[in-house]
Amino acid sequence: MSNVNDDPARLHDNLDDAHTSDILSKSVVSIDQRFQTSFNLDDAGKSSNIGNGSEMDSHMKDPIRWTKLRKISSQLFSERSATRYGEPTCLLSNAIIAVGTARGYVMTFDYHQNLTAIIGTGTKSLRCGPVTALALSDDGTHLAVGHANGHIFTWELSKCSNYLIHISPLPANKKIRVDGHIEGSQIIHLGFIGTRHSALVSGDVHGMAFAHNATFTLLGRLVQSVKLIGRYPQELQSADMPGDLKPSTLFAMENLSHRTGDTDIGLVAVITPNLLGLITLYPAPKTQFKTGRPKSVSMLTGLSGCLSWHRSTASRAAPLLAYCWSNVVTIVEVHATQTYDLDVTLTPKNAKRFVGTQSIVSVRWLNDKVLALVTVTQYLHLLNYDTMTVSTVLDLSDKHIVHYDYFSEILNDLKLLDPVSNEVVPVVSADAYFNSISSYKGKLFMMGRYEFVVGSISNWSDKLLDTMESGDYRKAIELGINYYQGVYDSAVVELPSNEAERKKLVMKNLPEMIIASVLYTFKVYDTTSDKEEWSQNMVELTKVCLEAWNVVDRPDFILEQLFQLYKQYNQTEMFFDQISDVVSNLQTTPYISPSVFSEIVKLFVLKPAYHKRLEHLICSLDINSLDLNLIFSLGKEYRLVDSLFYLWSHILDDFISPFVKFLELAQSVDNQDQDDALKIYPYISYTLTGRVYPTGKTFEAEKAKSYVYFFIFHESLIAWPQQGGKVVRLAKPSDSDDEDGVDKNYPYLQKLMEFNSSAFFTALHEAFEDPLLNTVATTGDTVDPAIAFGRSVTRQKIIDILLDLELMIKDNETRLFLDVFIARNYPKYIQFISLPEDSVLKTLARLAACKSTDERVRADCELGITALLSVYTKRNEIPDEVLTDLTQNEYYEPLEYIYRGREDRFNLIKTKLRRLENTPNETPVEGKELLELISHVYKHISDKDEIEPNSDTSSSNSSSSGKINEVREELTHLIDTHFRALAKIDGGTRLARIVSRYAPELHENVHLLADDPALQRGYLASLMQCKELIPSKYISLYEKLNQNTTCK
């Protein structure tokens, strides 16, 4: 055996360290361990966050660019303004910004935030209550204002000293003769019909909606109103109405000018607690479509309703309607058709649905792809119409959005079916936000309690420019990567949804950003005071630049320009560190131009500290990047063994040369060579399990496996290469025949076992999991002897070869690991492996005799023995010397297995007691099982005593009785000896009961527990449950312990 002892424990963890020989001599590897290379170990702690969206929150956590309307806020929220005009109550954003107040005024502003008009001054509109609804005409010249007591006024903005139209409410509690809002009903929805200035639709808080048409006559302005939806209070109180009529209101109403042919049909959408209705106003008001509230609506966070129209566009002829109840948003295309008699029909099509978790209180279109949803908890969700997914969620709590409770009193008695509990429950209505949130041309306006804000979507180019100008180049490039990969919602950032178009657009900017960022950062080095901070930032920038190079399909020009920059500023080490990390993390093999790669190799091959990273790079690159002659020459000169193994096996399809290199290294007396020789074992493991060494990537491995098996299990020396090659000897030809392997059977197998037996059998144990070893494969018409041999290899064949060599193995350690290997695999694959019973027993006996102090070896032996016992048919005939060895070497698991199978409870108890004494950290379950077993044996003995006939004095009965007493005494002696350990299992409770029933004389041992008052008290507490059956001295002792505890 080699004079270099193997280090099974650290073999995997230190395979690529410079001096593994110092570690490899400490212990042996467990057969269940899996080989790892530096690729596995280094990659375990690495992961790239770029391009997977994990950086989204830090780079673009708010895709909405918020602007405070400071001038408007200062005018409306000042103390003077609040006193004179009242607090803001209603917001409109359109061609102008209009704000209604609590005193009935309306203040209008342009988009420079200049106050353009104060509407209502000196008119009776100020006596009509707070402004509760606003609407702007289609041409932006007229404004409609709804008030809290039911009045509606229209104003011409160019001359707003007096109103144009006044629509008065009807007196309450009087007979209804014409249609109109009832006095005191708050007008909460308002809109102009089409392009007309004298036609309006309105809705109030009691659920009534009207269309109003004003005409000018000789007698003045005449307003005619037509009811669209709802019932008057008198109708609700009528005896003709059904008794179970549910309370209702108008959650939302919005009209849209939409032309069918040459006619504007006037679309109106309304939503109530139970129904959505679509109404056309031309040629006469008519309800065209109704639909009920979806069953999936949840009312856990309050019942709400809202809707929003999006006009038809050049690419889409039909307008879109988004409406929602509580957490369910539905979007439909509304198609209108006109018949020959000018009648109109509406047909909703292509419905899409989104189900959220919270009630939605506002729906607003930002563009034809994105909706802004505001929840009752004041979170903004950006919903993509195409995908019906939310890409962004923003907290709006800092905006302090104004909201009003319009509906709770009206819907106080409303009860609806809850879809979750399937029970009728009272409804809690959400507050209304329609007066505080408005949208116009992609901007979202919000009225807060302290300020007005407007938000607009930051498109991708604006965001990149802002980030670059802020000086955060790393985040700018990361953002560009995410845009390129489509991590962000294309609709939100205004990028093309087509992948090719999106990538082409971003690619115009990204390379220039990368080069400019690196160049500028290098140039500011001399003026930077904190060089350490600069270095850290430069490392991060380098990493993200290389990530970007990888993401955009690794164009040569980016990498070459970067490398030249780092070379120019003497930072090639930083470049090498980062590119090796990036390349090693890839799932594919990237291409680097040979010119760049050759310069990297020449620079770093002379630095031993970089050898491992250089090997990572070599094994991770596309073959076209590699100068093979250069790598082979440098690999041999600088001991880049992993690279050599990789090139031979994966690039040149030569699976034998790694073994030739192993034999060469194994002959050396140099410690580094000896350590490098150990890499043959993970190479075997990886190859036989279909993985590329050392990267671990899977590959089609039939040929590789065949050649490895052919070499290892060949009966004699072979020549390599097969055509015209030299004989691969175990040692130099000048050495003895015994050393060079000429006269050995299976010379390569013996050498691999002798050099490091634990590592070899660990690799073979892993290879045995391959299902291809189940049966012999057909050789087909192959003429390659290695392929033919590989197809003939089975588990049985390998076991047979190993058993043939068994007598030749003189090293005890190798024999031990062979036994462990057979013991672990024979039971596992018993349907594929046949072993004689005597071979199984011999293996069992040798493992039982193992006296190793290494815990991993002992664990392997114990597992192997237990596994063999599970398939050994003569468990009751196991020789006493084997049992003795198992006992002396403290292999408790197999001992318990044997005694449990024999139903030898007494010896099982003795074994468990030894285990309890020697392994006090065993789980409590083991201890409780032991107490149950003791109780069971005592009971069994007692039962036999009871059935013994008192009158029978025969010698057989006398002998039986004597044997029972002998067992009882020995069991009692065992409890006496291990009293403390047994008491500790459950604090003495169970032991006290057993002793009380079967061996009360052992209660005296409670005094031995005096040094552990808690344990002593626990034991006595169990006795106290039957005070009348125990001596008074134990009662006194228990009371004394309790007193001491109380005093403390």
From TrEMBL:
<protein>
    <submittedName>
        <fullName>Similar to Saccharomyces cerevisiae YAL002W VPS8 Membrane-binding component of the CORVET complex</fullName>
    </submittedName>
</protein>
<dbReference type="GO" id="GO:0005770">
    <property type="term" value="C:late endosome"/>
</dbReference>
<dbReference type="Pfam" id="PF23410">
    <property type="entry name" value="Beta-prop_VPS8"/>
</dbReference>
<feature type="region of interest" description="Disordered">
    <location>
        <begin position="944"/>
        <end position="963"/>
    </location>
</feature>
<feature type="domain" description="Vacuolar protein sorting-associated protein 8 central">
    <location>
        <begin position="574"/>
        <end position="768"/>
    </location>
</feature>
<dbReference type="InterPro" id="IPR015943">
    <property type="entry name" value="WD40/YVTN_repeat-like_dom_sf"/>
</dbReference>
<dbReference type="InterPro" id="IPR036322">
    <property type="entry name" value="WD40_repeat_dom_sf"/>
</dbReference>
<dbReference type="InterPro" id="IPR025941">
    <property type="entry name" value="Vps8_central_dom"/>
</dbReference>
<dbReference type="GO" id="GO:0034058">
    <property type="term" value="P:endosomal vesicle fusion"/>
</dbReference>
<feature type="compositionally biased region" description="Low complexity">
    <location>
        <begin position="950"/>
        <end position="961"/>
    </location>
</feature>
<dbReference type="GO" id="GO:0006623">
    <property type="term" value="P:protein targeting to vacuole"/>
</dbReference>
<dbReference type="InterPro" id="IPR045111">
    <property type="entry name" value="Vps41/Vps8"/>
</dbReference>
<comment type="similarity">
    <text>Belongs to the VPS8 family.</text>
</comment>
<dbReference type="GO" id="GO:0030897">
    <property type="term" value="C:HOPS complex"/>
</dbReference>
<dbReference type="Pfam" id="PF12816">
    <property type="entry name" value="TPR_Vps8"/>
</dbReference>
